[in-house]
Amino acid sequence: MADKVFLITGASSGIGAATAQAAAQAGYRLVLAARSGDRLNALAESCGGPDVALPVVTDVTSAQDNERMAAAALERFGRIDVVFANAGFGARRGFAKDEGESDEHWREMVLTNVLGCAYTIRSTLAAVKESRGHVLLTGSVAGRVAIPGSLYSSTKWAVTGMGQSLRGELEGTGVRVTLIEPGMVDTPFFDNRPQGALEAQDIANAVMYAVSQPPHVDVSELLVRPVLQAM
Predict the structure, then answer these.
(1) What is the H or E stretch that residue 31 is in?
(2) Which of 61, 138, 149, 176 is most buried (most C-beta within 10 Å)?
(3) Distance between CA atoms of residues 78 and 35, nearest Å
(4) pLDDT tens digits along 160-208
């Protein structure tokens, strides 16, 4: 496992950070991408330092940043085996302007959750095809069941479709595609801890389950939700 490289966007906190720790423990070298340089540097140190983890400050809504991220990974490690397109954030429910988020918040969310995911795929796809690797996308239970008044839910429906489209494009290449669909998770998205929520580590465990399967096994979707959460 020591020569395999695991790239994670949205790595500075929550699911991304928990997955980085789990992947480091499994023997992967890491490329950690997010907007927060200080958090990335601290995470990289905790995962084993510069010999193991490469922090790359990245805004996934920028095609150029994604290309730079992929180039840095290849320059340092020479390959990319696993890509976890995990960057994203949510918004309050409500389409009416007086009860929902600002126009700018909506715009940034859609760009990050949808276009950012697509840019990450595009920038790393050639390397993943060369390694016959694995692409994982962070979807959501909200991408399976529409949440009333939620534009966030709509972005995750888009990610669900993106995963299916990517899987079709990669048929016959040996590359695996997994859609990770968390339910309610106790992450920085929530100001107050949700009762009965999953931990970020629970989702990291699901990610590592998918990537640990033998090469002929494609875990296409993993929907993981708290026992107390209805669909």
Answers:
(1) strand 29-34
(2) 138
(3) 23
(4) 999 999 999 999 999 999 999 998 887 655 555 666 788 999 999 999 9
Tokens of 204: 């990291």
Is 28 annotated as catalytic?
no
Q: Long-range contact list for 158-162, CB < 8 A, 24+ apart?
A: 158/113, 158/114, 159/113, 159/114, 159/117, 162/114, 162/117, 162/118, 162/121, 162/137
Residues 230, 45: Cα–Cα separation, whole Å: 38
**Token match 């023997």: residue?**
27
In order of 19, 204, 224, 228, the CA distances from 198 in angstroms are 14, 11, 9, 10
Residue type, 141: V
Given the residues 28, 119, 152, 209, select the one marked as catalytic: 152
Give dist(CA 170, CA 187) in Å, integer. Answer: 32
Place of tokens 């009416």: 96
Per the CB < 8 A criterion, the answer to whether 82 and 125 are in contact is no
User: What's the confidence (pLDDT) of residue 25?
Assistant: 95
